[in-house]
Amino acid sequence: MQARMIVAVAFVPVNSVDTALDVLSDNQDGISQDLQPVLDWFEDNYVGRLNRNGSRRQPIFPIRMWNVFDRTLNGQERTNNHAEAAHRRLQSVLQMDHPSIWKFVDGLRRVQKERDLLFEQMVAGNPPPVKRRKYRQADSRILSLVRDFEHRPMKEYLRGIAHNFEMTD
């Protein structure tokens, strides 16, 4: 849960990210000491470490690049799941980790043929595939939490968001 709370910072408004980090870093109520290196890594790469003068260094990945608070409110996609799904689709067609170039090209052709068929079905007026119910429900709960951000304590908000997604490797 605490590891997912670090990821949940992506759902905090940009101007409240510092507050979220403070809550997670709190020695009493924050994350466990085991996860402190993960939080430090997140801060270094995604938020920017605080300097001695109180300003933050430039992170490798600017907050506006990865923050999804506004995207969630606007009903926009928040992830690159489409790219990940395409990768899984290709892996399932190839059924091996290191195919020869020719097997790879044949696999790409098969996947492209399936995608072309799906595209033509949508051109003909068929709706795109629907998200699974559990994901639609999670999206709805996350949207409800994001809309209610101003009325929740930060730790409760992060925990609420964290309850609504899974982390897999």
Describe the protein.
The protein has 169 residues and is an all-alpha fold. 57% of the residues lie in helices and 0% in strands. The longest helix is centred in the middle third of the chain and has 23 residues, at 101-123. It is globular. The two termini are 16 Å apart. The mean pLDDT is 89.
The main sheet comes to:
none
The count of strands amounts to 0
3D shape: globular
Q: For the CA atoms, what is the radius of gyration?
A: 20 Å
**Helix residue percentage:** 55-70%
Q: How much is the average pLDDT?
A: 89
Poorly predicted spans: none
Structural class: mainly alpha
- Helix tally equals 9
Task: Estimate what percentage of residues fall within beta strands.
Answer: under 5%
Q: Span between N and C termini?
A: 16 Å
Helix and strand element order = HHHHHHHHH
Would you summarize the structure shown here?
It contains nine helices and no strands.
Overview features:
169 residues; mainly alpha
Topology summary:
Layout: H1 2-7, H2 17-25, H3 36-47, H4 63-66, H5 69-73, H6 81-94, H7 101-123, H8 133-147, H9 154-162
Helix pairs in contact: 2-3, 6-7
